[in-house]
Amino acid sequence: MGATVVSMDTNHMQALTAMITVLGMLVLLVLPSVIGILRDRRIDRQIREAQEAREGYEGQKSSSRSTVPSTATWYAEGRRSKKLVSS
């Protein structure tokens, strides 16, 4: 028995090239969606971890409110004091 040689003719080569091209295009179309999904999952995980850390921090904090004024309060007090000085 002799060894059979399998050779690819032009039809087989064209079919293989077409299949590789279609698979490549499919990957190019699906890749941005997969990257977006993975990015969204990472962001969701970071938000969840931050919320858990905040809840843990608030649980340790005393029930009294912070004595540091908000930015809006600080800005309003600054404007009031300027009015008093200028009048």
Tell me briefly what this model is.
This protein is mainly α. Helices cover 77% and strands 0% of the residues. The chain starts with 9 loop residues before the first helix and ends with a helix.
What does this protein look like?
The protein has 87 residues and is mainly α. The chain has a domain at 30-59. 77% of the residues lie in helices and 0% in strands. The protein has 2 helices and no strands. It has helices spanning 10-60, 71-86. The chain is elongated and about 90 Å long.
Q: How would you describe this structure in keywords?
A:
mainly alpha, 87 residues
What are the SSEs and their pairings?
Elements (H helix, E strand, L loop, with lengths): L9 H51 L10 H16 L1
Structural class: mainly alpha
Low-confidence stretches: none
How many helices? The count is 2
Largest sheet: none
pLDDT averaged residue by residue = 80
Shape: elongated
Tell me the helix content. over 70%
Assembly type of the shown chains?
A: single chain
The number of distinct β-strands equals 0
Strand content: under 5%
